[in-house]
Amino acid sequence: MQIAPPDFDRMFGALADHTRRDIVRRAIDGREGVAELASHYPMSFAAVQKHVAILERAGLVTKRRIGRRKVVRTNVEGLRVARRLLDQYEELWRGRIDRMTELVATTPSEETDR
Amino acid sequence: MQIAPPDFDRMFGALADHTRRDIVRRAIDGREGVAELASHYPMSFAAVQKHVAILERAGLVTKRRIGRRKVVRTNVEGLRVARRLLDQYEELWRGRIDRMTELVATTPSEETDR
DNA sequence: ACATCATACAACCTTATGGTTGTACCATGC
DNA sequence: GCATGGTACAACCATAAGGTTGTATGATGT
Predict the structure, then answer these.
(1) CB neighbours of A94 closer than 8 A, spacing ≥ 6?
(2) How many Å lie between the alpha carbon of B18 and the closest alpha carbon of chain A?
């Protein structure tokens, strides 16, 4: 068995909901169970449980049994995977800027096509 | 008029689609119009145009008229806004780790409750 | 063993999303 | 002025997403 390749559709999809982002934030401390998380939101327990499941499938949180609760903890590595993709876009952008300035630097007046 | 506050639902929602992420990547060079972008994907022009509109409303690309085309360009600042949110989660996580190690450092054996 | 707390999951409803086709709107070149 | 290239948008369709209630499973404390 292998570790799953990052599923960016799921990752960003999971982050595209205010409630889920708030769960990610709260679960950083990794001390609340699903019911405790649910108490913060104006929706049913089942709805919050679904949100947690979505975050879990996206690799953004993990659940661990403690006593009769299941404690939800944010998976920082998952967040980093998402961040790295954004970083890659930024790198591509820098690369383009570099090529542009290089073009400007090598083109002007005499030194064309060195 | 004010600049709009970041709408993370829209931002991450826009990034939660493979085609749109690919458009973001392609539009970094900022040289293709909507029709040219559309030619890369196995779907109708209208579908791609919708994707571009979604990216635009999310603040991830801008459109600029050049001749009869409208050239699509990735808005790097938009990407940075999304990235910063992920960074904030990471900071919160570090803060928690710091508090934990501090707790471990001040608690052990004799020096309890100094 | 049993009542109970915490979680999981199925069935259902409503609205959003991603795709389609068709039509209307602007610039450009002749 | 008019054909055309490029874009925008409306109407529609199928499926996914976010919510609900209800029921089933699992671990704890007495």
Answers:
(1) none
(2) 7
